Amino acid sequence: MAERSVAEVAEDIWDHYGFDFGTDFYGIFKALSHVNYNVRIAAAEALAAALDEYPDSIQETLSTLFSLYIRDMGIGDDNVDAGWLGRQGIALALHSAADVLRTKDLPVVMTFLISRALADPNADVRGRMINAGILIIDKNGKDNVSLLFPIFENYLNKTSPDEEKYDLVREGVVIFTGALAKHLAKDDPKVHAVVDKLLDVLNTPSEAVQRAVSACLSPLMPSKQDDAAALITRLLDQMMKSEKYGERRGAAFGLAGVVKGFGISCLKKHRIVIILQEGLVERNSAKSREGALLGFECLCETLGRLFEPYVIQMLPLLLVSFSDQVVAVREAAECAARAMMSQLTAQGVKLVLPSLLKGLEDKAWRTKQSSVQLLGAMAYCAPQQLSQCLPKIVPKLTEVLTDTHPKVQSAGQTALQQVGSVIKNPEISALVPTLLKGLSDPNEHTKYSLDILLQTTFVNSIDAPSLALLVPIVHRGLRERSADTKKRAAQIVGNMCSLVTEPKDMIPYIGLLLPEVKKVLVDPIPEVRSVAARAIGSLIGGMGEENFPDLVPWLFDTLKSDNSNVERSGAAQGLSEVLAALGIAFFEHVLPDIIRNCSHQKASVRDGYLTLFKYLPRSLGVQFQNYLPQVLPAILDGLADENESVRDAALGAGHVLVEHYATTSLPLLLPAVEDGIFNDNWRIRQSSVELLGDLLFKVAGTSGKALLEGGSDDEGSSTEAHGRAIIEVLGRERRNEVLAALYMVRADVSLSVRQAALHVWKTIVANTPKTLREIMPVLMDTLITSLASSSSERRQVAGRSLGELVRKLGERVLPWIIPILSQGLNDPDSSRRQGVCVGLSEVMASAVSEQVQYCLTFYPSCAFHAHALGALAEVAGPGLDFHLGTVLPPLLSAMGDDDKEVQTLAKEAAETVVSVIDEEGVEPLISELVKGVSDSQAVVRRSSSYLIGYFFKNSKLYLDDEAPNMISTLIILLSDPDSSTVTVAWEALSRVITSVPKEVLPSYIKLVRDAVSTSRDKERRKKKGGPILIPGFCLPKALQPILPIFLQGLISGSAELREQAALGLGELIEVTSEQSLKEFVIPITGPLIRIIGDRFPWQVKSAILSTLTIMIRKGGISLKPFLPQLQTTFVKCLQDSARTVRSSAALALGKLSGLSTRVDPLVSDLLSSLQGSDGGVREAILTALKGVLKHAGKNVSSAVRNRVYSVLKDLIHHDDDRVRMHAASIMGILTQLTELIEELSSLANSPSWPPRHGSILTISSLFHHNPAPIFSSSLFPTIVDCLRDALKDDKFPLRETSTKALGRLLLYRAKVDPSDTILYKDVLPLLVSSTHDDSSEVRRRALSAIKAIAKANPSAMISHGTIVGPALAECLKDANTPVRLAAERCALHAFQLAKGSENVQAAQKYITGLDARRLAKFPEYSDDSEDSDEDMSTS
């Protein structure tokens, strides 16, 4: 009863029932001599507790105990001491009662001990009596020194005739005196006498006495500080040199007690450890070596953890002592090792163990042997340390068993036996020899050991040493090839957790066992997997999830693996057990994830997770049925999987659910299975029928395995009893619903579903006609509901079933079915009315023609007629070819009907009509549909578009010849005013193009371009100005249908076709919204870049560059991924031999640079290329440079700008006109104004005309790009003078450019400061003077400038009418037509003729009334002849 848990339970029971013991201790006295030691200890403690409660009975109890002692002394003969157990019990009782004894009881007890107990013939009893006396003195001595000391002294001073007996008692009394002496004053002279007596008693060859003396010496040492050195030296000498073993061992105990008394510091102070070490290496004296080891052992025991630092120092010497030549030294080494190990802390174990394990790897056999022996001694570690170190020790000891040296092997066997000897579990203890055989010869004895373990009935829990021996054998068993052995080993692993004392003892072995159990879990043999799964469940259940952090993730990963079904099945089985072990809360946490993975995209994952549902019912049992509503849909979906193994897994799971829960969860299972019967997927229907069969077989009490061959469809193997059983469980109404559904799927479109349904029907229905009569109302209801279903297959199945009924029962059923259907037409539920219509069409299809006619005339209804048309079409088939003109138009109108029901039925009917026609009907159908697309009603256009798409998508006929016409028609329809029609037309276009073979697509490029052009023109006519976008190309994914046509042509067509494709793409991008274009930027731009990089004619490159320019404008930032490639492409094209390619590339590069933030490298490259080029290439580079500076000038650094300036400064007076113009135009964009203006002033006076021209061109460009700084410059008057002088130059280009520059100057002021009249007075006359120039170009330029100023500032121009008017009147009569036309536009704005009749009247001062009225009729903004800097010829 020493076990605390047992004591606690007993105490609870005692308190619960309120027992009262009383003073009758007879039972306790009897228990004191019980054969079981634990019972004796419990009895002693119980007696002490009783005496504590009833102190008055102490005297009587002591008397009884002494009497019992005397009685037990007389039991037995001379050779056998039979009463020692009872006497030991009395010693234990006195020991336990030390706390409850009173002062008056002490003399009685001490007298008893001295007079009788200390002379007991049994050493164990004697030792326990001494211990009891010491404890009594410890507890009561402090207050009773004067009472007890005389008793002890009297005894020690007298002599006795029985010398031997006297010596025994004297030793005890000396020890008592020592125990009492610690209560004396420190300086009491008696202490020294007591110490001397204790030291004498140390020579007694009794370990119990010596231990007791050692314990008594410690408290007395503070009084002996002055004699410490002499005392320690005396004990060391005696320990090392005494002739008698008992004296040496006594000295060792004395030394330990003395050291403990003086404190740990005296070890160093008196060089005790050094002396011990010297003694251990004393080769000439075995006594010295043995004495040193005895001292080491006693110090370890007495000082415990305090001595641990020195243990580590002594370890190498201890190892050497194990292989000493003297047996006594070796035995002393073993004892020392045990003492050392028993006191080691966890940290000590960590320090000692590595060096011992390393010793096993030593080549010298003696070192190995010593290390093994020390490892064996670790069996005596404290329990906590033992469980920590054994997992590392036993495997190493097992390896030693195969060592080449027999002594090392023998040491290994002995060490393992030592481990076995500390096993507390009696069952395992008895099996130690068998287990050691299993460890030493695993090949022969592993299976036998496992068998023995499985046959053993365990009553007691398994401790750490037991595990240390068991685990290596089990581990070996798990790795065996034999399935039987693996199964046994896995079984034991599963049982271990429930048997271990502390689950944490198992933790060190998890790393060893778990990988092997995992391997067994994926074993090919199902039975082995099953045992391993249970083992894993037990492990995680017993030890908690925290000790297996990777197990659940590993199981889930294996469940998802692509490996074999076997592995996934094992993981599923293991996971089911683990989930059961971790509890319902954890299961609920992971269930959503499990269900989600049942529809994972990978088949192997779906298979694994569905297999899990096969095992969960077995592991979770009745708890799992609560989750059936969540689980069943996942299983039913799995039944429809395209992968066979997934379907098998789902079906297997379904069978298990039915097997486990058919009776308890029928209301849950049956609806799910019934829903599955009506699923769209035939595989789910087949599996659901099989599962329904399982359910019904279970309910009916039949196996369902009868082989049904031959006979009619309705002959089966069922009996009436089966039918009654089903009605009893389901109820008649539910039975009718189930059988109605089953009968319906007998006509399923899938053969396998039909066969499965027929098998179930024939197995559970005894009489088909009778059953049909019973279920007919429900069957008709089911059929009508199914005919109204949104699922086409379900409608088809219901139709076939109804048709079968009509065909089988003929006219007998029609008079009965028709009224039901007729009544159904008035059903408030529209879907049911739809079902009735479908049912009628099925009846019509199954009945003869006269009956069909009858049906049609009998039920006039819009919705019905629409559907009837469809039904008729299906029956009539190609016969409709010549009636399409009659059938289609009303259907097209009805498809847009306000009544949704009519709309839906009309749509289905129209789809049926276009589906059933043959090749001869294609032309009339297309003709009708094209007519519909052109209809004035948006509804008809929309319906026709939809049918075109439907026809091309679903028809199996050859339609490639019709596709071009349809594509063109539908593209034009993309600009329809009705947005819904646009959307439908776009979808139809997509379907038509998808139906065309890929290789044919490029041949449609011209046709598509023309159609896009027509559609754009339609849109332009609707819009007044602004960008033209086709509505169909503003939809999401707008270009998806048409893009393949152009891309196919671009990638695989001829050079001419590629050019057409590139141009077409550009046109397409122009009419597409920027939002819709975004997602197509990359698919379009990539191929364009790839093609332009190849060697194609310049026409192809030019077309691609044109399209890329449009793309840059509309695509914007979406082109960022292509910036480097586009830049490289454009720069390369600048060097092309074709001028068109160069100029297009230059323009494109300029626009592209606006998207880039780093343009310095590009500008530098262009400048470098410029310096090494000439002719057209130089012109292109200059155009590109201008574009870059214009669109990305803000990103160009000042250093690069300076470089541009320095290069172009010399080009503005170049001999080549075009180079000069380009250079001047670029210089105007730069901002180095002061230096530039001074340069221009000097050039304007050059004797050579190109520098003069360049100077004026640059001034004109500056007024266009940077007018403000010039206007505020101090050199502004100089510049105006230069322009005035240039107007008189003999070269007309200078005069024209000067005119243009003056126009720009005035235009800038008109916009910035309209009130500046001074400048008008100075500059406007100069412009007017140019209208009289000899050159018609100069005159036209002057008129354009005046018109632009008039548009910007009309009031200023009217106020200066006297200056402008006469000149305009003269120009209106100019002989040159362009000048005359320019004058008309200029007069319109200068005189504001479009603003009212008063202006027309005022203008007649200068021009004729006829001209004024004629010009006033011009649209005010009909011209686009704005001054344009892009026109380089006039820059």
Textual characterization of the structure:
Helices cover 73% and strands 0% of the residues. The protein has 1435 residues and is an all-alpha fold. Helix 20 runs parallel beside helix 22 (406-421). The chain is built from 75 helices and no strands. Residues 708-712, 849-861 and 1424-1435 have low confidence and may be disordered.
Cα-atom Rg, whole angstroms? 57 Å
Total E-strand runs: 0
- Biggest sheet record: none
Strand content: under 5%
User: How many distinct helices?
Assistant: 75
Cα distance spanning the termini:
117 Å
Helix content, binned percent: over 70%
Mean pLDDT: 74
Shape by Cα distribution: elongated
Any low-confidence stretches, pLDDT <50, length ≥5? Answer: 708-712, 849-861, 1424-1435
In terms of structural class, how would the helical and strand content be classed?
mainly alpha
